[in-house]
Design goal:
By secondary structure, the chain is mainly alpha-helical. The protein has one domain (9-324). It contains 14 helices and four strands. It has helices spanning 7-34, 42-52, 61-73, 75-84, 86-105, 113-139, 159-183, 186-213, 219-226, 230-234, 236-254, 259-279, 290-293, 297-324; strands at 144-145, 148-149, 282-284, 288-289. Strands 1-2 form a two-stranded antiparallel sheet. β3 and β4 form a beta hairpin.
């Protein structure tokens, strides 16, 4: 009996899951760094850092799984995509390095703490912007020539990729602000509510802008989203985005501390689903399908055995760490 799916499709789902979990777990972390200029007090910044200190080290696990999984399961896609986005990927890594170093050094260097705070903000902003630009560069299409990257060094730099870059910056900042609502008290929490309302407007505006621009990138995108009968299957996503936005606005108005963060995650999930709808069944949009790019089936099944063991373990210890450090954080709390 033949299965209704291919092993390559399973691996595409695994990589997509890893990328989404990275967005969920590192997005609010990067967002906190980008919110630093709005909290000039040293005490507030210390609290912000302490809300994420116990868990931030493990967030990049999913980025490694996503990148490593792409290399192992879809070597052709990796060979085509990476040369196309080398510059934003290198910029992202530089940003993550600056942010990681600044996170540790600001606690131990009181004289140069402001410098490390700037580095933490700059690294977070650069990493978030680079991730969005890389996403836009992939979505707008990559020049493929004879199963190789056929474009130039600067093909990634377009108005659309810059738009997606700032959309990710706005979205991560919203995650960071709603995380602070959930984890802090007093004036810091109040300011986080104010920022969340503004960032929600910016994020939804960015989602609308990217969604309206995407169908004009390729006729295939247009057909997927606006032509009959595809529109029957795609229209629930923007309707759900509108519904989540209304619920999020109400949660912010009612000051329900835990709801805004999870509703913000729902916005990201719907946006991620929309991205999947646009790209399927391609892994390099409009050029290389998932199954064309996949490694041999035997290799995929062999790697799947390892993933089936390790991913649940990673999820378990990650969930345990968040559970242990649940609850509000104040100026008297600290992990350093």
């Amino acid at each position: 009996m033949s299965l209704p799916f291919h092993i390559a499709d399973v691996w595409a789902f695994i990589i997509a899951l890893a990328v989404f979990l990275y967005i969920v777990m590192d997005g609010f972390d990067l967002g906190l760094g980008m919110l630093f200029p709005f909290f000039p007090k040293k005490e507030d910044r210390n609290v912000i850092m302490n809300t994420v200190a116990p868990v931030w080290d493990g967030n990049e696990t999913w980025l490694v799984l996503g990148g490593g999984g792409l290399f192992a399961a879809f070597p052709l896609a990796y060979a085509v995509v990476m040369p196309a986005i080398y510059t934003p990927i290198i910029a992202m890594l530089i940003g993550l390095i600056f942010r990681g170093v600044a996170f540790e050094f600001r606690w131990r260097s009181k004289r140069e703490r402001n410098l490390w705070d700037i580095a933490f903000f700059g690294g977070s902003f650069l990493a978030a912007l680079s991730q969005g630009i890389a996403l836009g560069a992939i979505l707008q299409g990559i020049n493929v020539s004879d199963r190789h990257y056929g474009g130039g060094w600067w093909d990634w730099l377009t108005p659309f990729s810059i738009l997606t870059g700032f959309a990710v910056v706005a979205g991560y900042s919203l995650l960071g602000a709603t995380w602070l609502i959930m984890k802090t008290k007093g004036g810091l929490r109040k300011e986080a509510y104010h920022l969340s309302r503004l960032l929600l407007i910016a994020t939804v505006g960015a989602i609308c802008a990217v969604s309206l621009a995407t169908p004009f990138l390729s006729i295939a995108y247009w057909q997927r989203w606006f032509e009959w009968p595809s529109i029957l299957f795609t229209s629930p996503i923007p309707i759900a985005v509108a519904g989540i936005t209304v619920l999020l606005l109400k949660a912010l108005s009612d000051e329900r501390d835990f709801r805004p963060f999870f509703l913000s995650l729902a916005l990201f999930l719907l946006s991620f689903a929309g991205l999947g709808v646009s790209m399927w069944p391609y892994i390099v949009p409009q050029s290389i399908t998932i199954r064309e790019a996949a490694a041999p089936d035997n290799s995929l099944y062999f790697m799947l055995a390892g993933v089936a063991v390790m991913v649940p373990i990673i999820l378990a210890y990650t969930a345990f760490s968040y559970w242990v450090f649940r609850g509000k954080v104040d100026a008297k709390s600290g992990y350093h």
